[in-house]
């Protein structure tokens, strides 16, 4: 009998009956929110977890009590840190069954990473692009997976390959966030294409609306404007309910462990299922599904090439 999971499913419900003993998983962003819950749930079901975080003291406090967990320092906004973390893992040599690129920032003021990239694109996409590609050989053949956390926020904007750092475009917190979240999906699409011949698949997921530290840069006015947009996009009489953190992390573990690899590879998932493709351009009124531009194979290849040029590294 096949169990159907949905919007309200939790991590433990999704993983019920799955023994992950002997599995090794890497999760970025384990100092708060979804990253901590993802690590907890996987470890509770037997997996050995490597948690990556910028602030190790914060991560240690947040993950205290999680068994089979080791921590590594990783600042996605600093490519020297990214490369050092990846190189240490490669030197260690132990393989991963699953990598979950969970860390990220959202709707922050205009700023730049240590390497000069716009903060959200540089952290959410380029940091993970370099880190994951440098450890790609550690993802096990014939069953390994990559899960990139994206967002319904990808509907705010497609990537801008001509002006990724807003040098010629007026900065908008949510446009920048949308660009980075679209990039997370496109990265999964191209990574999947490049690695599926060796049995490694990649997917992107939307965790849902959850109140975590991700929204720490949002003012009350920004939060209200976002909620007003959400309310306008709902069917008449419907209301928006925040997910709990265990519900928000459920799609990550579902896509990484439970769903058939061939079903999720190269796709975008939400509420523990593969999302419907919605044609058209950026649209704040679209709630469910994935915009077609975020799964465009040619766009994914172009972003990969642009990303290599920006970070001055070829994968």
Task: Describe this protein's structure.
By secondary structure, the protein is an alpha/beta fold. The chain has a single domain (11-311), classed as Rossmann fold (3-Layer(aba) Sandwich). It is built from eleven helices and ten strands. An eight-stranded mixed sheet has the order 3-2-1-4-5-6-7-8, sandwiched between helices. The protein has a two-stranded parallel sheet with strand order 9-10. A hairpin with a 2-residue loop joins strand 7 and strand 8 (273-274). Helix 4 runs parallel beside helix 5. The N and C termini lie far apart (42 Å). The model has no long low-confidence stretch (mean pLDDT 92).
What's the CATH C level? Alpha Beta
Strand content: 5-15%
**Which quaternary structure do these chains form?**
single chain
> What overall geometry do the principal axes of the alpha carbons give?
globular
Helix percent reads 25-40%
Count of structural domains: 1
Overall pLDDT? 92
Q: Structural class of the secondary structure composition?
A: alpha/beta
**Uncertain spans, ≥5 residues at pLDDT below 50?**
none
Order of helices and strands: HEHEHEHEHEHEHHHHEEEEH
- The end-to-end span amounts to 42 Å
| Largest sheet, strands/sense/barrel | 8 strands, mixed
The second-level CATH architecture is: 3-Layer(aba) Sandwich
The total count of helices amounts to 11
Rg result = 18 Å
CATH superfamily: NAD(P)-binding Rossmann-like Domain
Main sheet strand line-up: 3-2-1-4-5-6-7-8
Query: How many beta-strand elements?
Result: 10
CATH topology: Rossmann fold
């Amino acid at each position: 009998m096949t169990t159907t999971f949905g919007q309200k499913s939790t991590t433990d419900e999704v993983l019920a009956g799955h023994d992950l003993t002997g599995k090794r998983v890497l999760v970025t962003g384990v100092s708060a929110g979804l990253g901590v819950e993802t690590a907890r749930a996987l470890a509770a079901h037997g997996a050995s977890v490597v948690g990556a975080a910028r602030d190790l003291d914060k991560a240690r406090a947040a993950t205290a009590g999680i068994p089979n967990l080791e921590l590594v320092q990783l600042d996605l906004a600093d490519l020297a840190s990214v490369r050092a973390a990846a190189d240490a893992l490669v030197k260690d040599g132990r393989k991963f069954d699953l990598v979950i690129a969970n860390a990220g920032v959202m709707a922050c003021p205009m700023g730049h990473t240590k390497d000069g990239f716009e903060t959200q694109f540089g952290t959410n996409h380029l940091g993970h692009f370099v880190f994951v590609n440098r450890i790609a050989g550690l993802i096990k053949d014939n069953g390994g997976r990559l899960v990139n956390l994206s967002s319904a926020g990808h509907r705010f904007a497609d990537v801008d390959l001509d002006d990724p750092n807003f040098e010629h475009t007026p900065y908008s917190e949510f446009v920048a966030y949308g660009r980075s979240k679209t990039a997370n999906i496109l990265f999964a699409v191209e990574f999947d294409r490049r690695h599926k011949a060796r049995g490694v698949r990649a997917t992107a997921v939307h965790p849902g609306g959850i109140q975590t530290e991700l929204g720490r840069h949002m003012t009350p006015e920004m939060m209200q404007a976002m909620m007003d947009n959400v309310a306008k996009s709902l069917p008449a009489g419907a209301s928006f309910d925040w997910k709990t953190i265990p519900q928000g992390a459920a799609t990550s573990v579902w896509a990484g462990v439970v769903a058939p690899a061939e079903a999720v590879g190269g796709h975008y998932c939400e509420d523990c299922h593969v999302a419907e493709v919605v044609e058209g351009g950026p649209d704040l009124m679209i709630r469910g599904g994935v915009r077609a531009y975020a799964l465009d194979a040619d766009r994914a290849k172009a972003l990969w090439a642009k990303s290599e040029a920006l970070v001055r590294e070829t994968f």
